């Protein structure tokens, strides 16, 4: 159907009527002319399919294949090979899975931490980037437990806790600080992150700092949204 639609568009049929005519024609062939279609040799149908492939394939891809990211090339090859070996539906699913894995890997590399010690001798770790299963190892490597002072604050203002693996990572880093006799706090957790922490109370022992400025900002935002709805 995809090949048929592309051929239809390339032939100039871009309106609604073209799609309706193509669909009704195909239905009429199936209902009233199936015995005549069965008389068409398989070799002829193979030739038709080859022409559909030649007409629908984006040959311009070969011109830019050395300019696009390597991950896109991998997805392109995977989808093409799976389409030939299986079918288009499985190929699309495989392409989505590969793209999702690539996205997770790239986001895992983006997590970073800015460190500083304030006037009270408290060390701050400002986390940037999403914290989830793929970014746990880089996240844990950011902390200098032995060299840190007695009190540490992890600031998630520019980060999000995405899944259970992230909670376990926070619990792991907390246990390491507690074993050294140090205190650790979490700051700027969003509402959904707080819910995850709340659900994991039995396995995660952390001290979440309340930040008045943060909640004032959320309250102002909610009031602004409510005002827009009544306008």
Automatic annotation (TrEMBL):
Residues 121-200 form the STAS domain. SUPFAM superfamilies: SpoIIaa-like (SSF52091). It comes from the Bacteria. It is found in: Membrane. PROSITE patterns: STAS. The keyword Transmembrane applies. The chain crosses the membrane at residues 15-33, 40-62, 74-105. Pfam families: STAS (PF01740), Sulfate_transp (PF00916). CDD domains: STAS_SulP_like_sulfate_transporter. GO terms for cellular component: membrane. Keywords: Membrane, Transmembrane, Transmembrane helix. It is a multi-pass membrane protein. PANTHER family: SULFATE TRANSPORTER YBAR-RELATED. This is Bicarbonate transporter BicA.
């Amino acid at each position: 159907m995809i090949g048929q639609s592309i051929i239809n568009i390339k032939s100039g049929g871009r309106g609604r009527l073209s799609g309706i005519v193509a669909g009704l024609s195909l239905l009429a062939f199936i209902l009233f002319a199936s015995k005549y279609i069965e008389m068409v040799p398989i070799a002829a149908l193979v030739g038709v399919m080859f022409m559909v492939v030649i007409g629908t394939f984006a040959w311009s891809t070969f011109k830019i294949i050395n300019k696009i990211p390597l991950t896109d090339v991998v997805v392109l090859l995977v989808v093409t090979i799976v389409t030939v070996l299986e079918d288009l539906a499985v190929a699309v699913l495989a392409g989505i899975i590969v793209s999702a894995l690539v996205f997770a890997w790239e986001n895992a590399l983006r997590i970073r931490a800015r460190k500083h010690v304030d006037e009270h001798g408290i060390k701050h770790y400002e986390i940037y980037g999403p914290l989830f299963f793929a970014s746990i190892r880089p996240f844990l490597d950011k902390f200098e437990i032995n060299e840190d002072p007695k009190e540490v604050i992890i600031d998630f203002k520019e980060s999000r806790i995405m899944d259970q693996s992230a909670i376990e990572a926070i619990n792991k880093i907390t246990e390491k600080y507690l074993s050294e006799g140090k205190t650790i706090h979490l700051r700027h957790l969003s509402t959904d992150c707080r819910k995850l922490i709340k659900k994991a109370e039995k396995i995660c022992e952390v001290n979440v700092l309340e930040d008045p400025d943060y909640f004032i900002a959320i309250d102002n935002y909610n009031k602004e949204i409510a005002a827009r709805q009544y306008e």
